[in-house]
Amino acid sequence: LDPGLIRRAQDGDVESFTALITRRVAPLTRTAMAILGHEADARDAVAETIATIWRELPRLRDVEAFEAWSQRILVHACRRTLRARGRARVREVGIEAAGAISSSSEGDVSGTLARRQALERAFERLDADDRSLIVLHHLDGRSVVELAAILEIPVGTAKSRLHHARAALERALAREDR
Amino acid sequence: MTQFDDDELRAMLEARAGRASLDPVAVIADGRRRAVAASATRKSVRRLVPSLVGIGAIVATVAVVVTLALPTSVRPTGSATVTDDATPIVTPSAVPSEIEGAVTADLLGRLLVEPNTVGRIVFLDGELIPAQGACKASPWCGRSVVGLATPHSVLPADELAAGYMLAPNATKDLYAMRVGPRSAAGLISLSVIGRMQANGSTVAWPIETLAAGLPAPPHQAQPVEDLVEVTGWIVRTPVHPCPSTFRSSCNPTEDFLTVDAYQPVRSGSVIAPPEGRSISLRSGSYDAWAPDPVRFESGVEPRRVTLLVRPVEQCGSRDPRVRDGAMVCIRPAGDMWEVAARLDLPR
Question: Could you tell me the pTM of the whole model?
């Protein structure tokens, strides 16, 4: 992202902010959808993130950190959304999964698909922090160092939390298998 | 079963992330509501909210437009037209020598923050796409939409028929669109007027070229009609009597777009503009599209205009009135042009 563009947006230039946020909407939406798994929630989280970015942008000192900073805002928004939602949400089934199941004869559901669904159900059991770490690392490709920057925690702590999140996912998957 | 590898995990997350069909319009609309709500309680935010309200809609639209394929330097220019078919035309205070500015994200951004943009014409690169699945989270779902550059970014276009959206051979092209009213959420709507037929790197065509015969459009099967931009003098002949036999189909006046400021005159029983330096327009075009039409003796004063016109067949075998027997032609078949929009009115 162009630092000059960010600085102009910081100064209140609407067009610059528009250009800036336009480049971030798609990746933010993708991350939010992976963490939350629910379209309406993802939309809420991204919208809240955009509003927060606009409000807080003048206080961002290091424009080079804009991307990590905006992702941190999104993670916080996702955390708030998940906590507000609780654990009673009905899980949505993807179109591709539903189609595959409905078009398959009994007992012919692919093992890969069933395993992916089990993995997703296990992922749904994780809390917001664990989900965010796994999504940022395994989907967005963030390194441990980048995770530390996004979450504003020491690198060692980021590594430890990522290990913990993955272990939690394994335990949740084990519960799915029972 | 309790073990999984990174590829499995990534595949699950990819499927999960790609499940949504969120479009920027819906996302931004939500963001705006939140910002407005916050403004009620935070004085520091209140100052910024009006801008953010505009930004919300801009982002959604710009997300579409920034992916335009043609370089700006060769993209045909956008217009400053503020005319609507049902709106009386006023005399422009100044007629620009050329249409202002290329259509860019900046222009769409201005449309969203400026008042009174209804009726303005813009040119946009894009592709007409099926609406199904493209607007799941959009308040415009169930209405015809036109997608520009990406099927996940949609803009409503109320005047589109469903058939347009389902055209199997729709291609990415340049479309003239009219800005419609805003929704309650402040988003603009755009309706398609037609696809522009390029003349090299522009969409403007000389009258002489049109008079000699326009090349066949490249997409004959495309249901959206082709348009060309042309500048000239619009004029109407004096009223002349129609033969009683053909009174039901005869027009008492004829309209032309000419290279020169041409004052129609009667020469015996013939009323015609200079051959090769004018094109025929549908009857009534002068009254509908000339700026401040003025009668001059039995005719009218020529008016300089820049128009979007589309070819129609007059008195040919494809003219439905002739085919249905409702009209008998007293002239040989010839090219006739229909005015779709006028481009040269001031903002």
Answer: 0.42
